[in-house]
Amino acid sequence: MEWVNETLVREFVFLGFSPLARLQLLLFVVFLLLYLFTLGTNAIMISTIIQDRALHAPMDFFLAVISCSETCHTFVIVPKMLADLLAQKKTISFLGFAIQMFSFLFLGCSHSFLLAAVSYDRYMAICNPLHYTVLMGHGVCLGLVAAACTCGFTFLLVITCLIFHLPFHSSNQLHHFFCDTSPVLKLASYHSRLSQLVIFMLAVFALVIPLLLILVSYICIISAILKILSTVGRYKTFSTCASHLIVITVHYGCASFIYLRPKFNYSSNQDILTSVSYTILTPLLNPMIYNTRNKEFKSALRRVMGQTSYPIN
Q: What's the first-to-final CA gap in the chain, in angstroms?
C-alpha cells in the first residue's frame, strides 16, 4: 500500500483477476479478440450508416450514436484491463481512478437515457407514422441525444462528488478489474449510511427514470399495435421494436443485478462476472442484435462493401 501522511491513498491495486493467475494469459487472448471484434463490428455499423443515404433515418442516427457510446464505453475499461492481465503490478493512480470512474458512469448513465430516446423514436414511428419524418427531424434527434448526455452527466457528477468526498485510507486494494461504485464504496474507510443511501438512490434514479420513460413509450406502442386489425400487420409493426427490446433487457438485466440489489448481498466475484458481460459481451452483441434483424442495414452493408471492392472511377 502507498500512503500520503498515512491518510491519502496515491494509487489503487486491482485484484479482480488475482484468483485466476494461471489463466490470465488465456483471458488476455480471449478478451483481446472479443475487444477487437467489438471495435470492428461497431466501426462497420457506424461507417455503413454514415456512407449509405438509405440509412439516414432517425432510428439509424440513434443506432450510430449508441454504437459510438458503446465503443467509448469499452475503450474506458478494456485496454487497462488487458494491460493489467499481463502486468505483475495491477495499479492505477488516484487521478486515473477518478477519470475512469467519471467516464464509465457518464457513458453508462447516458446509455440508459439513449435507450429511452430510441423508445420515443419507436413510439413516434408507430403512433404517428404520417408525421414521423417531420416530428423526428435532425434537430429533434440531436436534442434528444444532448438531453440524454446532460441527464447522464448530471447524475454522474453528483455520484462522483459524493464518492470522492469519502476518505480512502483504510486500504487501496480494489476487488474488481475497474473502478466501479460498489467495490469503491467498500474501500472507503468511513461512509455514513446517509451518504451510501444517497449514492444508491441516485444510481436507482439513473436507471429507473429512463426505464419509466421506456415503459410509457411501449405502453403507447402496444396500445397502437392492438388497434391494427391484421395479425400480419401487428407482427410486422412489433418486429421493428424487437431488437430494441432485446437490448433493453440485456442492459437492464446486468445493470439491475449490479446496482439495484441490496448491498448486504454484495459479492465481488458475482459482480466481476456480470461486469465482464456488461463491459465486453454486451457492446459486442448489441450491433449484432440490431443489424441481424434489420434488412435495410444488410442491403446497405452489401452496397457499401460493393463500392469498396469496386470503386467507381
A: 63
Q: What are phi and psi of 242, to 5 degrees?
A: -60, -45
| Continuous segment of H or E residues that includes residue 91 | strand 91-93
> Looking at the DSSP assignment, which residues form a beta bridge with residue 174?
14
Backbone dihedral angles phi then psi of residue 171, each to the nearest 5 degrees: -165, 155
Please give the angle made by the CA atoms of 145, 98 and 77, to the nearest 5 degrees: 65
Share of the chain above pLDDT 70, in %: 85
> Any idea which residue has 458475482 for its cell?
270
Query: Global pTM?
Result: 0.85
Burial class (CB in 10 A: 0-12, 13-18, 19+), 132: middle
Classify residue 250 by burial, with Cβ atoms within 10 Å: 0-12, 13-18, 19+: middle
Residues facing residue 9 across a β-bridge = 3
Confidence of residue 3 (pLDDT cuts 50, 70, 90): very low
